[in-house]
Amino acid sequence: MPSTSRKTQNFTESVIRRMTRIANEHGAINLSQGFPDFDPPRELTAALANLAPAGPHQYAITWGAENFRLALARKQSRLMGIPVDGDRHITVTCGATEAMMAAMVSVINPGDQVIVFSPFYENYGADAILSGAEPLYVPLLPPDFGFDRAVLRAAFERRPKALILCNPSNPSGKVFTREELLYIASLAEEFDAWVITDEVYEHIVYKPAAHVYFAALPGMAERTISCSSLSKTYSITGWRLGYTIANEEVTGIIRKVHDFLTVGAAAPLQEAAVTALNFPGSYYQGLLDSYTKKRDLFLRCLDEAGLSYIKPQGAYYVLVDVGEFDGSDDTRFCEWLVREVKVAAVPGSSFFKTGEDGGRISRLIRFHFAKKEETLRLAGERLGNLKKIWAARGYGTENGDISIER
Ligand code: GLN
Predict the structure, then answer these.
(1) What values do phi and psi take at 397, rounded to 5?
(2) Whether the Cβ atoms of residue 65 and residue 270 lie closer than 8 Å to each other
(3) Helix (H), strand (E) at residue 196
(4) 283-339 pLDDT, tens per residue?
(5) Domains, the chain, ranges and CATH?
(6) Which residue's C-alpha comes closest to atom 1 of ligand 1?
(7) Strand pairing partners for 163?
(8) How far is CA 24 from each of CA 167, 175, 337, 349, 379, rounded to the nearest angstrom?
(9) Which atom of ligand 1 is nearest to 346's Cα?
(10) CA-CA distance, 187 to 178, in Å (whole number)?
(11) Distance from the alpha carbon of residue 80 to the mean position of ligand 1, in angstroms
(12) Are residues 272 and 68 in contact, defined by beta-carbon separation less than 8 angstroms?
């Protein structure tokens, strides 16, 4: 067969999606890939059902249906406290995944450097490969996942084209403080870099933390490409509705990249989602209350199981320290956990690129808690047996230590 592209040779299978596959094979509770097992708001599914006969069923305008962009502009202007214009600043994409890719392709030249905080959501690695960027990893340091200002400054001194900012952060649950963001802003200005944000968890920020939109910091709207989506906010990860908000000039470029990548996001789903974008403020309070309960419930389960973790300030993930079991191979440990305890997590090494070993192994594994309370309670019961099962047989199981194909 003719050879395939060099770019793809550096791709690994998504560890998150792989863990989902293994969880399904073993009938485990899937706390690896972060998506809800509960329904979206009823008004939203009703809106979708109502429009099925009449449509729209053909392409929307490539950069997003007009009423979707207007509703989104109203919501985001209010939230972000800056003027967001649906005609000039918004591009509707197939999920935040496409938003990030389109943003990077729009500003990166092959060989440009891009700062990525580690641990980071695995897609940024692939985005860098596809856009030809060389990632410069800057560690976020547990337990609060702050960064060393001198290290960040040194990274900027290498003149990167952009910095990727996931806030609230996946997988750490870190919510960047205003002071941290102002420091990043001062460097972005001094070294004239873009800041590409991933703010898909903007509505899931636990008190007393508070979300600060990077684009709303003084002078930052011009150099920020804000990416987000409706997936987590309205529990519709399968609808694949995301967007970028950026200045008019770069929006023109993002729209062209987006047009050639996908033409557009699904027209009927954009139409139905206008209902959600017009939800009152009480909806977002309800969402946060519900996730706060889920977080507290799951953290109690971890306490009862005797597992230590880093308390998340935002998003719906928690990093749990499993160094006392197998501190040398977190992937093997996660495979064991799926098989023997029937709960799936993501090995921390898939998120870290920094650390003493270059992030090849991690004591931390990631669970998500975007699940019904009954699912979380059942996962808690199973995790309550983890120490007992490990003490009884460790990796030497009655099934043998089946190694799962990697
Ligand atoms: N963002 C979710 C996670 O980190 C889902 C990832 C995905 O499969 N796109 O688990």
Answers:
(1) -105, 165
(2) yes
(3) strand 194-198
(4) 999 999 999 999 999 999 999 999 999 999 999 999 999 999 988 899 999 999 999
(5) 7-40+282-390 (3.90.1150.10), 55-279 (3.40.640.10)
(6) 34
(7) 115, 195
(8) 30, 32, 13, 22, 15
(9) 10
(10) 14
(11) 25
(12) no
